[in-house]
Every structure is written in C-alpha cells, then in structure tokens.
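Ticket #4471: structure export looks truncated?
Reporter: QA, pipeline team
Priority: medium

Steps to reproduce: submit the single chain below to the structure queue and open the exported record.
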Amino acid sequence: MKSVNATIASLALLGIMAGPALAQSAGSDEMKGRHAMQGQITSLDEKKGWVHVKTDEGTMILRVPPESLRNVKKGDTVTVRLALKDTGPAKTKQ
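Actual output as written to the record:
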C-alpha cells in the first residue's frame, strides 16, 4: 500500500449542511470548519472522478476532478480536506 502525499479533495458543503454556528454574512468567501482526515481508498472510478475513502469516522463517497485521480490507486492512503461554506438560506420555489 502506498501513501499519496497529496490532497485529493477540497469540498465546500452548501449552506443547507451548515448549522447556525457556521453562519456568516452574505457575500463572504471565508470557509469555516476546516478539517483534514486521512483514509484509505477502497474504490474509485478514474474516468468519472468518484472515489470511496474509508476513514476512522466512516466511508466518504466523493466526486473529484478525474485528473486528480491519475496517480491514485485502490489501497492508497490519502488526505481529504473539507471545509464548510454557508451560502445563505435555501431558495424557495414560487
């Protein structure tokens, strides 16, 4: 098993996932709740960019740019960096 010394994903979870403690003013590009986790790739689709990463917290299924998976293989250890960005209240349909 090789260890990939690179971040394979940097995700911004939409405001619907952000709790009140993560609220921020409209128009702010500041990311909150930054977190990095190390895990092992259990499955991947290099052409579509899907990757399953097993971490101590559970398995994450991520969609990343396919080119970021060129040198990544099943069994590799990777670091996933996450951040939250509150994009405001959910839009309502009229």
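Status: closed, not a bug. The export was complete when the record was re-opened. Leaving a note from the reviewer for reference: The domain at 3-84 is CATH 2.40.50 (OB fold (Dihydrolipoamide Acetyltransferase, E2P)).
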